[in-house]
Amino acid sequence: MLQQQLDKLLTAEGPVNPQDRDHDHFDHDADDYPQDGSTGNLPNWLFQPDPKGFRPKRRYRSVWISDIHLGTRGCNAEMLVSFLRSIETDTLYLVGDIIDGWRLKKGWFWPDAHNEVLRRVLKKAHRGTRVVFVCGNHDEMLRPYAGLSFGGVELVLETIHTTADGRRLLVTHGDSFDAVVLYHRWLAVLGDHAYELMMRLNIAFNAVRRAFKLPYWSLSAYLKKRVKNAVQYIGQYEDAVAHEAAARGLDGIVCGHIHSAEIRQYGDITYYNDGDWVESCTALVEDFTGALSIVDWPSEVRAAALNAAAQTAVETADEAEVAVSARAKTARAKATSPAETAV
305 with 182: CB under 8 angstroms? Predict the structure, then answer.
């Protein structure tokens, strides 16, 4: 049943916004369209042009995102779509738990925004981005298909990434280093229920914030970083992951799984965690020199909104100043008019 639903998502034609039919508002790329005008067996939405952005897209060599948990109410799909629209990258790594099979088996939840995430990823693959899907524990139903490709997306269990400056990084979801998931699956499922409750609280909390026109803020991430046991667990997990990279003779490791974005040095090993799109909404990016950094997308959205508000305030003040100057000029003209008439 789950596989049938996923097949529908990959082949269904996406909804068309009537405004999108005005091609003057879109970027065009001749390579996006078949030369004979047909789409063959591919869905039509794959060939629809993207809306033009007001800011130029950021260019990266590589981008890592994980723990999107499509199919759950906690997924911040709209925020992820806005991030994917803002970037261009040579390689996009999906580092596990992209689709939450655990949750979908219990009940189908798939709004249009979750469709849009998949479409955005498949469009990037269609337009030349190398997309690598590293299976996680929540999308473990895809692991038997590792080594295959679908829609231009490579499906793997893990892979090695070589940075622009020559460092070799293991890319893996990271659940294999989690003793709870590996040896006590029933505890992991129990923890999943507790986590879902926390996510529901997070959704309600941010709904109230939106009502007061306040930006997104993760209550769950805040609590996690201040609970002693959670902090201790994260530290132990990072140690185990870094040890594995050292044992393989690599320079570092990129993972997800624990929903905690981090860049940390463990001796000669660099540990990278790209975070998640349920709580923190972060990504790991590599520029063309090989430098890696974390993008905190909610913070950047807030900063952009503040800059826009500040710019609007400046423009309003300038307009007010011009208006006052014009009124003063008119007043002076009226004041001198009788004297000129008398002369």
Answer: no
